[in-house]
Design goal:
The complex is a heterodimer of chains A (272) and B (273). Chain A has 272 residues and is an all-alpha fold. Chain A contains 13 helices and no strands. Chain A has one domain: MetI-like fold. With 273 residues, chain B is an all-alpha fold. In chain B, helix 1 crosses helix 13 and helix 7 runs antiparallel to helix 10. Classes of the chains: A mainly alpha (272), B mainly alpha (273). At the A-B interface, helix 1, helix 5, helix 6, helix 7 and helix 10 of A face helix 1, helix 3, helix 4, helix 5 and helix 7 of B.
């Protein structure tokens, strides 16, 4: 008969360790790789101990367009999120307050529609208008991902606001609109921040839409890294360094919005 | 909303009845159901892609849901550092998929990759991973499960936390083993949660693009070409928009059909429990 302690190690701590190693290992490998020289990275058996170098990060930042692509990614993520919030806040509020069931169903369908079903018409439309490779076109396509996500997450936040509070404000002489701006919005402001971060991540991570709609002047980081991989697949050091730089901001944001992630992720739109 | 989503969908439907390349200067030529007929009867890539998508999705749903339940079962316990552990397992699903696909590709290198090194360490033969037609889908499934088990695990965690305590107490009084408790109490009570987790996973798995496109572009050969990848190649590599639109409509129908099927499984649930 095993002791209680030994049993607990076997049925709990061991599986826990296995789970954590499985999920964290690729990140650790990426981070380690980004500090390895090409010779260290390409040696077999793989090196666990090595002399770290900043060479890869230098290669990514100095004399490349990487900073420009990072800026593109940022502009597009912020732009599409702002657009998504401007349209999404009223939509989410009306779904939450007036029980717009039909909009809810439309939302679920949007969740199921393959992104590419929207991309083909968008592509034809923008190429006709000679608007491919403009920030506006990229933001609009990204918004088709961001907007349903924003609405989906916000509906929950608006539903948490008690209708009595709103009615009280109206009785005290607020119009519906003033009440919305003075009472409802401040209450959900934390929720809106979390939603904004989810929207930014969704746009930042987006690959499919960016791949088709961006060009030389609007290319985003995921597309840039993909192109680089096609062109120099064996430069593992630079590739992992670039991957690390793309991923770190997103991972940092997780810590702020951890609470809201389940709600946002069950929408799943964060990844195309 | 309507303009953003409905209009493009209608245009795709319209295009699906036409023969048209983006490079064409002429306007789309109306061809009735010729695109659909060609897809279903003549196209050598269509049916394999359909079955590949279904196989990939089914395996992915089963793996991620089972693993998610397992992970949740461990993380639901109280232990020091639980908050940190829960945050850590979130990372795969939030990280940029292109970057993660790239890191996995490097780890899966048949000659110098760390995964083969670990396999050898365990006394197993090295694998070809993405380079072999037989190994490519299982390799992609590994990445997919790694990336999305966190989501199913989170849904299961929420479900486990909301379970009533009484059945577990009476099971303990009756002397049920841990395994029996899990099989006869946890699992039936978790059914509706599991269906939700599976549904979300299924919708995403049917549409996976980033991981597959970055890691294999559908290759080697067509060995990992799912419907979504095939649509992408048809529309944006060959620019055959009419044909691609017909393909998209069938693809969309498949996603809708599968979702309705799973949703009805969920609706049937209250009657049985």
């Amino acid at each position: 008969m095993m002791t209680r302690g030994a049993r607990r190690i076997l049925t709990f701590w061991l599986p826990l360790a296995a789970i954590l190693i499985f999920f964290v290992f690729p990140f650790a490998w990426m981070l380690m790789g980004s500090f390895k020289t090409q010779a260290d990275f390409m040696s077999y058996p793989p090196k666990w101990l090595f002399r770290p170098t900043l060479m890869n990060y230098k290669a990514v930042f100095v004399g490349s367009q990487f900073p420009q692509f990072a800026l593109n990614s940022l502009i597009i993520a912020l732009g599409s999120t702002v657009l998504g919030l401007v349209l999404g806040i009223p939509a989410a509020y009306s779904i939450a307050r007036y029980r717009q069931r039909r909009l809810g169903v439309a939302l679920l369908t949007a969740r199921m529609a393959p992104g590419i079903a929207l991309l083909v018409p968008w592509f034809i439309f923008f190429s006709r208008l000679h608007m491919l490779d403009t920030y506006f076109a990229v933001m609009l396509t990204h918004m088709t991902v961001v907007l349903p996500l924003v609405i989906w997450v916000l509906v929950g936040f608006f539903e948490d606001v008690s209708p009595e509070l709103e009615e009280a404000a109206q009785i005290d002489g607020c119009s519906r609109v003033t009440q919305f701006y003075r009472i409802t919005l401040p209450i959900v402001s934390a929720g809106i921040m979390a939603t904004a971060i989810l929207g930014i991540i969704a746009s930042w991570n987006n690959f499919l839409f960016s791949l088709v709609v961006t060009g030389d002047s609007t290319r985003t980081l995921p597309v840039a890294v993909f192109n680089y991989m096609q062109y120099d697949a064996l430069n593992w050091g630079s590739l992992t360094a670039a991957s690390t730089i793309i991923t770190l901001p997103v991972l940092a944001m997780v810590f702020f919005i951890q609470k809201y992630i389940v709600r946002g992720m069950s929408f799943g739109a964060l990844k195309g | 909303m309507a303009i953003l989503l409905l209009l493009p969908l209608c245009y795709t439907l319209y295009l699906s009845f036409h023969q048209w390349y983006v490079s064409n200067l002429t306007s789309p030529k109306f061809v009735w159901f010729a695109n659909y007929a060609a897809l279903v009867t003549k196209d050598g890539r269509f049916w394999p892609a359909v079955f590949r998508t279904l196989y990939f999705t089914a395996a992915s749903v089963i793996l991620a849901t089972a693993a998610g339940l397992g992970v949740a079962h461990v993380l639901v316990r109280e232990f020091p550092g639980r908050g940190a552990a829960r945050t850590l397992i979130l990372l795969p699903m939030i990280a940029t998929p292109v970057a993660m696909a790239l890191v996995w590709t490097i780890m899966m290198s048949p000659t110098l990759g760390v995964l083969n090194y670990l396999l050898r360490g365990l006394g197993l033969p090295p694998a070809l991973w993405l380079a072999s037609e037989r190994g490519v889908i299982p390799s992609l499934l590994l990445v997919e499960t790694w990336m999305w088990t966190p989501m199913t695990a989170l849904i299961c965690l929420a479900g486990l936390a909301s379970l009533p305590l009484e059945p577990f107490e009476s099971a303990r009084v009756d002397g049920a083993t841990g395994w029996q408790t899990f099989w006869f109490i946890t699992l039936p009570l978790m059914r509706s949660t599991l269906v939700v987790a599976a549904l979300f996973r299924m919708i995403d798995a049917l549409k996976v693009f980033d991981t597959i496109y970055v890691m294999t572009e559908g290759g080697p050969g067509f060995a990992s070409e799912t419907l979504n990848i095939y649509v992408f190649q048809t529309s944006f590599k060959y620019l055959n928009m009419g044909y691609a639109s017909a393909l998209i409509m069938l693809f969309f129908a498949l996603v809708l059909g599968a979702s309705v099927l799973l949703l009805s499984a969920r609706r049937a649930e209250p009657a049985t429990s």
